[in-house]
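Fresh eyes needed here. Kindly weigh in on this sequence plus structure tokens:
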Amino acid sequence: MSGQDRPFLRILLGPTASGKERSALASAKLLGGDIISVDSMKIYRGLDIGTAKASPEMRKLVRHHCLDIAEPTEVFSTARYVSAAEDAISLVSAENRPVILSGGTALYYKNLLEGIFEGPSADPAVRTELLARAESEGHEALYAELESLDPQAAQKIHPNDIRRVVRALEVNRLTGKPISAHQTQWGKWDMRYPCAMVAIDWPRELLYKRIEERVDRMVDCGIEEEARMVFENRESYAHTPLQAVGYKEFFDYFESKATFDEAVDLLKKNTRHLAKSQMTWFRKFPCEWLEMKEGMTADDVAGAAVEIWNKAVKEQQ
């Protein structure tokens, strides 16, 4: 099926705490559509507060897809996400309902829209060795090795994104070629689906204020208990949920190495870093940016996004 034969995707991007979830909900209600989550942490069952997952009430108002499709014990691949998202897109479009994608995982968007990088399967022995080195030598040592072997890939990966650093080193080890050499097709935005991307852009000071408020709400909603559940299951959980912003910040607190307030402060700091990293990715996407101002609401975003999407749909016809 060519890109033009596929259903049109309405995409709402933005960093964490930008209001994507409620804006997507408002957009879906306006259009009578479904929401497909594009988030590498919201796939996990039981991880709700730390991932800011849509509440049961929100899901009753609008049907959501690609939430709660894996156990935290499972190693979940990008290819598996793409398969699940494509199934959801086919289901919704078969019902002649608009498809709205919303979330903050850039890698999921790129693989869904540009195609999967078919690298070698994970090698448990190599991956275990690299993760053990990350633990003993520190993330910086592995990132420095990646900078030496594949500077092009290193520029695109945050030093603390140990999962992607390990994957890049693993591909290099298994194929004898840098991962960047395998990904030459990326960045050209040769879309597999017709789509229009709208991105929420808050001034930094307002976004950081929203992050502070979100973390405070998470504390009120019981993030400590959810993080403790992750901590107590750390021997059986997959690496990805253990490294999620929202949980790992409390581990030192549970081991009496930090106070609760220090854990909360660290969570706010790491959430700011996550937002910055997401924006770095999204600046490379072919988006129409919505410049936000204090007082603007989810309904404001939805109205602007729907107008942009409707115009793009007409241009496709």
User: Anything to note?
Assistant: The CA atoms of residues 134 and 257 lie 21 Å apart. The beta strands are 9-13, 34-37, 64-65, 99-102, 195-201, 287-291.
